[in-house]
Amino acid sequence: MSDHRRSATAVLPTLAAQHLAPSLTMPAIGRAGARPARLGWALLVLALTLAVHAVQLGNPVLHVDEEFYLLVAQHMRDGAVPFVDIWDRKPPGLFLLYRLFLLLPGDGVLAYQLAGIASCAATALVIERLAGEIAPPANARLAAVAYVLFMPVFCFGIGQAPVFYNLPMALAALFTLRAWRAENRAMLLADGARAMALVGLAAQIKYTVVFEGAAFGLALVARAATPRLPIACIVLYATLWCGLALLPTLAVLGAYAAAGQGEVFVQSNLLSILARRADGMASWSRLGSEMLALTPFWIALALGAQQRFGRTDALRLLRWWGAVSFLAFLAFGSWYDHYVTPVLVPLCVLAAPSLSLESIVGRRWCAAMLGFGLVACMVVLLDNIRRHGTREQAETIATAIEEELRGGCAFVFDGEPAFYRMSGSCLPSRYAFPNHLNTWTEAQALDVDPNREVARIMIAQPDVVVTAEWWPFYLPNWETRAIVADFLRRDYEHYASVKMGTHQYGLWRRRRT
Fold it and tell me: Lower CB count within 10 Å: N or C terminus of the chain?
């Protein structure tokens, strides 16, 4: 062998190692300085996320969903079982997460909000690592900043389900990419297992991750097929990965079945999702506004397509993830604002190549995109407080309810689930989320006739009834509204009209005899 060929042979392993290694390190930082620099950057992202949401901290009425999650957790602490004693269609893992927040001091509001902020910041850091596969480190950092700024634009409050499950799904994407680059079967199997186990945990926060999880699973199977593994081996790997993704949900189902509540679990966690109806033109209006708000990302994807950074295998996987995530969002049909937030994770990663600071045009685009995100973020946050109300307003209403409780329950037919918790009221029904009984969209999705349930509640004569004194935002259930109105005319007196945000609530108490 010639000296030239010996030299080339010696260099090949080095080149291969450089090609296979994920480009997750930051240049110009030695090993001694890398860890402090990473920690400093992580603290900076956390501080930015905290600053963005500071105006919301402590407000118990940021979003009706997270109010309800905290209410369920409170009743779990007192022994209630989700779906059996208090009904909803979210996975029990989400309620268990909120139950853990109640282990911290305080009433739980600040605890879940700080946990949501920490989860958002952690997800941004994973986005940076993923973006570093297809863009320079500076671009990747700006992609992380974009996630922090754009999340509030889509009304995720602080503790909506996506803020918690986006983190394991982003990590699942990272492990899927590692599995794609695995040098042997053991690494492929292990990293694939980690990815699908994370998908399984995320599914117990919200089942909608099943689409992205399937995308990762298909990518893993495709990777397993490339080294020409035996078919039996591929089937074994796929079975293991699929089993890990399903394991948490199957374990919970088994626990409910063992307690004789398997039918309740299946109805609430599966059948009710299929039976829920869309709310007509309102959903199309939301979709239009959301697509408009995502305009910076459409531009970023177009600009980024002209850039060539990193490795094409990462780009293919990330594009596949982004496409499936977006199609999953479209598939649901109701298109509430916070349904966009899972799509933001791959979108921010894929936007990274366009966020260049190396040219005047690139710097102007970065300023435009992130500037839009900052302004839109602040406008939405302040508008949410204007519309939903403040802590002081919520406490005023809760006090007005509490003063009229005479050993019984309030019935929040319209309004905020937080009213139950803040007033100390018991629950008059398993269906404590007001929209389950007062909207047309939910009328066929419950495991009970809503008319009968509302009539039963009113026959039991709750001490206080809370109703809306504005036109309902969602398509109303006119039948349940008529039942409530009939009982109010006969047995109740209107004792207060109270305002919270842009909504006026009517408070009714039982007539004194």
Answer: C
